[in-house]
Amino acid sequence: MLALVRHFLVPHSSNNHRARIIHPSFVGFAVLFFILFQVSFSFLPQFVPVVLGYVSSITPEEIVDLTNKEREKNGVPTLTMDPQLTQAALSKAADMFARNYWAHNAPDGTEPWKFVVDSEYKYRYAGENLARDFSDSNSVVVAWMNSLSHKDNLLSSRYSDIGVAVVKGELKGIQTTLVVQFFGTKMGIAANAENGPKIITNAAQEASVAGIIGVNSSKINKSKQLVLSPFLATRKIALIVISLFSIIFISDMILIKHKNIQRISSRSIAHLLFLFMILAALVVSKTGLIL
């Protein structure tokens, strides 16, 4: 057993003085395993009592509060929660779940402003931000603030009202949380002037789309099954595999130097730097999408 471990992990005559685990054939096997692991996710719920999805603690109140805090920081008047815009946001989220799409416009071309009009909110200006797969409210608002188009909606002085819906459900086979944020100013109410492009007076043309927000639907899974995040599971496996290879490459370099073994060609340092770059990217990567 010890001989087998040494063969795989330690440079030795049995493996031509290169740990077997960092031979090209074994690295190829590791890559194949990772690909199969990714593919197996779609079939996992058929064999294990698990739900693929994202667990979140987002609330509409927090989204509104964080939005108004960002507006205060930038000297923009805060927004008032409007029940009609809130209903519009709920309807938009429900429609995305019901028709299984993730976009500003529905598959049949229906624009988001239809939900605003259907809620009997007669708007002069309107805007929409959307988000999905986030775990908390702050991450949602931070993501919007880091996107120029979403930030423009969030901080626009044209808007006086806001409606937010946060809904959990199943979208394209994944349990997720959608956040839908509608902004608006009613007809007959003058909007504050702001620096930027000239505002067109036609309401339909003025409506701007910047992001996506999630809402609840009838597809909500009410069982007590374990919820497994595809993103987090994949990231954890990748972190483990890359960390293992990094440790082995470092150990290989130390042992080769210590034993004074000469190699005709060695790219251990280049491989290690490449692994460190991937590792850093994995550490800073976060779940969540915006539109």
Structural notes for this entry:
This protein has 11 helices and 8 strands. It has helices spanning 2-9, 24-40, 44-47, 60-73, 83-99, 113-118, 137-145, 148-155, 203-206, 230-259, 268-284, and strands spanning 50-52, 80-81, 123-132, 161-171, 174-186, 208-209, 226-228, 289-290. Helix content is 46%, strand content 16%. It has a domain at 58-184: 3-Layer(aba) Sandwich (Pathogenesis-related Protein p14a). With 291 residues, the chain is an alpha/beta fold. This is SCP domain-containing protein. It comes from Candidatus Blackburnbacteria bacterium RIFCSPLOWO2_01_FULL_40_20. The chain crosses the membrane at residues 21-44, 237-256, 268-290.
